[in-house]
């Protein structure tokens, strides 16, 4: 029965993707007419590029998901067996969180929201999902790595270290943080053609593979991996269509609507699928980009409105973009973080004198600029492919850690 549900899900996703393709084509002129567009900052021409096209894709995705809702429950409808309400609730709560993320993204596209709102709103919209997780009696237990247990016992730890520990509310705090992180992670690794949609496609397909492997290998978590696939297959196929239009040279921009929708969908599938820790392995580039961005995100270091690379029309290449500010403007946390990055070789910094004051020029703190720092200026299409290549490498690493290292560390 679950195989039939999966096949129907894939069929609906295929139809949804085709509809999405047609809709994007027909909405491109409408977006321009309604003045919903952005300007490609890495091109010579200043032609308007329709934005946010993610809203069309998200709408098709929701329709596909709504149509699919009854499918996994066919065998219970009209039968004299107890209906699995918890499963239906899980799907509905996931859809609530995804819908609110789409709303937040669209509001951001229209209004350019403040950072505190971008953090507060996803925190609140995670509550339906976490509440359902709680009432469904889902586990908040973590396994203690065997190496840690062995180490503690040999170090004379006075108690027998248990194989598992229930961390109760901390688990909910962690899941809430995963949701807030994911909703913003893709949006801050953005700004060159095809990057937002491309990274989402790579992550989504990697997690689809992970779920299928888990379904085949095991397991007690059968339903959880299945529900994760129900959300991911339509997402991956619709996003692939969006990538087709968003890749270099971009005919559409995805907008914040897409970035928040994508991030929230990944967070939702990991929570419903019970693999939120594994999800973080598939988001290594996003996590690194977030950590590297912290000084600018929290304004320890001045942060310009746009941190995307600088376009040089003559060579048709992208260069690192920089932030320039008076040295005296730097707060102490800013000084510390820049020193750490400089010592680690992760910072371009130039100091110069102007009007009797010392000024600093540093690269904007994103991994996009970091790739340009290490590899030198390059064409936009090549830069996107390099970053997507890193994402693919990250996925291979994630599989290695999850399936090889984890079995070494967690075997009892
Ligand atoms: C986030 C980033 C910002 C980055 C921007 C690019 C942080 C804190 N914010 O801001 O640094 O510059 O995304 O998306 O990291 N654009 C292009 N080419 C593309 C995609 C976007 O030129 O391939 C430009 C267009 O002008 C487009 C604009 O970026 O209109 C979209 O920016 P927006 O999504 O509003 O920026 P933020 O999400 O606020
Ligand atoms: Mg954005």
Automatic annotation (TrEMBL):
Subcellular location, principal: endoplasmic reticulum
Subcellular location field: Endoplasmic reticulum membrane
Membrane-spanning parts: 6-32, 53-73, 85-107, 119-136, 228-245, 260-284, 383-405
Mode of membrane association: Multi-pass membrane protein
Keywords of the record: Endoplasmic reticulum, Glycosyltransferase, Magnesium, Membrane, Metal-binding, Transferase, Transmembrane, Transmembrane helix
Catalysed reactions, semicolon-separated: a di-trans,poly-cis-dolichyl phosphate + UDP-N-acetyl-alpha-D-glucosamine = an N-acetyl-alpha-D-glucosaminyl-diphospho-di-trans,poly-cis-dolichol + UMP
Pfam families: Glycos_transf_4 (PF00953)
GO molecular function, one term: UDP-N-acetylglucosamine-dolichyl-phosphate N-acetylglucosaminephosphotransferase activity
Enzyme class, spelled out: transferase
Known EC number: 2.7.8.15
Single biological process term from Gene Ontology: dolichol-linked oligosaccharide biosynthetic process
Cofactor list: Mg(2+)
Coiled-coil segments: none
Gene Ontology terms: cellular component: endoplasmic reticulum membrane
Family per similarity comment: Belongs to the glycosyltransferase 4 family.
Cited function: UDP-N-acetylglucosamine--dolichyl-phosphate N-acetylglucosaminephosphotransferase that operates in the biosynthetic pathway of dolichol-linked oligosaccharides, the glycan precursors employed in protein asparagine (N)-glycosylation. The assembly of dolichol-linked oligosaccharides begins on the cytosolic side of the endoplasmic reticulum membrane and finishes in its lumen. The sequential addition of sugars to dolichol pyrophosphate produces dolichol-linked oligosaccharides containing fourteen sugars, including two GlcNAcs, nine mannoses and three glucoses.
Protein name: UDP-N-acetylglucosamine--dolichyl-phosphate N-acetylglucosaminephosphotransferase
Organism: Caenorhabditis auriculariae
